[in-house]
Every structure is written in C-alpha cells, then in structure tokens.
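To the wet lab folks,

You asked to see what we're planning to order before we commit. Fair enough. Below is the target structure as tokens, and below that is the sequence we designed to fit it. If anything looks off to you, flag it before the synthesis order goes out.
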C-alpha cells in the first residue's frame, strides 16, 4: 500500500493576448473541462506551467490576463496561488531588452558550446544583467506564486518543496539565450544552454528522498548538442520528471541514460491557433516512483469542448513506462483513519440525514417526530371472575 497518488496539472504555451476571440473560446471551454475533473477523479494537487504565458511580454499589462486565468482555475479546482508554479518561455522574453544586445547574444551562442564554457557563462556579469532585464516582467509575476514552498533561488532557477505532497520542483529558464524571433530565419534550436553548474546547484538544494520534477520551457533537443548530453544525464540521475512545452505537440516518453531514467512530459500548447492541437495533461504519480499515468485532454472543434485525447492513447491515457499500467491497476492506497473519521462526521452523516429527510417526509425529522406519551392512562385489563358457581 502507498500513502498517496499525486495529480499534477501541466499546461504550457498559453500565449495569452487580451481581446483574442478564438483564444477566449478555447479558454472558456478549458475552464469548463476543469470542472469535470472531480467526477473523473483527476482533481490536481499542483499546477505547473512551462512557459509562453503571454503572447508578447513587452505589451502593457501583458500578464494581467494570465493572472485572471489563474484565479479562475484555482477557484474551480479548490486550490490557491501556493500550488501554482511556472517557468518562462521564449514569448516571455522582452524584445526591448534583446534587441540592443542581439549581437552579444549571438556571441554567447558561439562561446557556450562546451560544458566548461557554459558554466563560465553563468557567472559573467554582462550575461547576468542581460537575463535580469530580459525577464523582469516575468520575474515580478512569478514571485507571487508558491512562496510558502520556496526553498532557494539562483541564477535562472527557483526551487520549491511541497512537503505534504512529497514533491520537489525546480523551475529553470531555458530561454536565456533566445533571440525571440528578432533575426529572420534564425531559430533558437540548438543554440540554448542550461549550465551544468546551475542544474547541479538547484537539485542539490532540494530535500533528500523526494519526487523531483524539473520544469523548463524547451525540450532538451533545443539545447546545443554538448549541453543536451550533460543535461539529459543529470536528469536521468537526479530527477523523476522533466516537463516542457514549446513544440506545441504532446510527446510523452521515458528516457533512459547510463545514469538512470526520467519521464519527459512534453505537453501540447493550451492555445496555438483555433484549428491546431490545443490541450493539456494531468500526470498521476506516486512520489519517488518511476511510474507515470499521463492523462491527455484536447480541444475538439466539432464538439466545441475538451475531451480525452484519444489520438495519443486509449482514453487519452499514456503509461510510462508501458508496464506502469499494471502498477496503477494494482494500486492500493493506505487508509488514513483520522481523515476517514473527519469525512464520516463532516460529509457522510449530514448527507445521510438529508437523504432520509427527503425520503421520509418533506419536514425534517426533528420537526416531525412526536415522542410517545408514556404518562397517558392505559385501559385496565379485564379480570376473570373467581366465583364458584
């Protein structure tokens, strides 16, 4: 038996833009779908958002729409801002900051092509200043979430520990060297870097023996080749999950390296365009276990609603590794007797009383019950005559 099964809601690439009608249609359907999660027994314990929160980070009040969406989501799910975490994406880059430094960014691309130079770059003052300015608006937003669980913040990362869930999360910034589409025909692919030193420092600050989730916007295939190899080996050794987005396609897979195994959960965009694959994921995990049950849900234009993403798996479910299906089928949770007693008193007994009231009488039992009158004189029993005839 196990103590708990944790559900993680993973959304990515929302690209929020005020006044976008098509986007509002899909987001309204998304909020309606969140209301169905309770009956599906998929209520999230944690919300993780892997970047591209806004369409354009430099627009005035670019994150106001995002805050409004989060408030609606948490109200529906019965959570609060302490259970919401995020990382930045390339759309969260300030073009106003990148533009004047675009040649310097290109020089950093050429410089950080091996492990040691990537680590060296992390300590360069000019690079630190560039990252600070480029993500200032995003940082102001992110600092308002999950502060009760905050463990440590460093150069381009933040660490969190949710003790009651047994889950640790490292949010990393994979977009520090993004050119944000400012050079025509030039993609960020194979030009990005997550320094080894950064990841070791971040994961090393977490409590021991927890379920480690690393949250980043880009798949590791967008890091330069030398850096990808380092990062994948570190994730295989020290993390249970790496959750990302960016490519607007859902591609869950279990990655095995010489150092270990890690689940890579790449989720599709919550909103790209009206007729594209728009969706989200819920991962059911048992802390410290390598088993993942990924539930994918997507927008269907013909139904104008979200439902199971059956193009990805039976009932929209993907097990990773595949034999995890047997693990979850045989799952038995430990019974917390104290919680069971609270439920009996606060939920079960009131519901039973209400049901009895509805069934027996329109008037509550305590108002309709008439106690018997035990003082009332009873008729005297007849006596048989004893006379001798």
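Sequence we intend to order:
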């Amino acid at each position: 038996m196990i103590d708990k099964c944790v559900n993680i809601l993973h959304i990515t690439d929302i690209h929020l833009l005020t006044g976008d009608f098509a986007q509002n249609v899909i987001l309204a359907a998304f909020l309606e779908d969140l209301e169905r999660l309770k009956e599906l027994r998929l209520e999230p314990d944690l919300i993780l958002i892997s970047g591209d929160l806004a369409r354009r980070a430099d627009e005035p009040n670019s994150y106001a729409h995002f805050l409004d969406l989060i408030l609606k989501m948490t109200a529906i799910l019965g959570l609060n801002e302490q259970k919401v975490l995020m990382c930045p994406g390339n759309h969260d880059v300030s073009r106003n900051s990148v533009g004047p430094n675009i040649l310097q960014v290109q020089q950093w691309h050429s410089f950080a092509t091996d492990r040691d130079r990537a680590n060296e770059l992390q300590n360069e003052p000019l690079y630190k200043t560039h990252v600070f300015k480029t993500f200032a608006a995003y940082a102001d937003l992110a600092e308002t979430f999950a502060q009760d669980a905050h463990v440590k913040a460093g150069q381009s990362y933040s660490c969190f520990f949710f003790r009651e869930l047994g889950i640790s999360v490292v949010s990393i910034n994979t977009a520090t060297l993004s050119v944000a589409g400012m050079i025509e025909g030039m993609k960020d692919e194979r030009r990005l870097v997550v320094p080894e030193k950064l990841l070791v420092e971040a994961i090393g600050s977490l409590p021991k023996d927890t379920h480690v989730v690393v949250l980043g916007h880009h798949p590791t295939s967008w890091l330069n080749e030398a850096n990808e190899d380092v990062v994948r080996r570190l994730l295989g050794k020290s993390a249970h999950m790496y959750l990302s987005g960016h490519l607007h396609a859902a591609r869950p897979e279990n990655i095995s390296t010489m150092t270990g195994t890690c689940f890579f959960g790449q989720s599709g965009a919550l909103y790209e365009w009206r007729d594209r694959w728009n969706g989200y994921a819920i991962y059911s995990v048992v802390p410290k276990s390598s088993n993942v049950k990924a539930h994918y849900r997507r927008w269907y234009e013909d139904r104008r609603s979200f439902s199971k993403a059956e193009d990805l798996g039976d009932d929209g479910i993907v097990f990773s590794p595949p034999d995890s299906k047997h693990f979850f089928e045989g799952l038995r949770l430990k019974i917390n007797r104290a919680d069971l007693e609270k439920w009996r008193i606060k939920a079960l007994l009131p519901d039973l009383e209400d049901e009895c009231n509805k069934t027996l009488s329109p008037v509550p039992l305590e108002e309709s019950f008439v106690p018997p009158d035990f003082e009332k004189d009873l008729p005297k029993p007849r006596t048989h005559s004893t006379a001798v005839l």
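Structural context that might help your review: The chain has a mean pLDDT of 90. The longest helix spans residues 337-360.

Thanks,
Computational group
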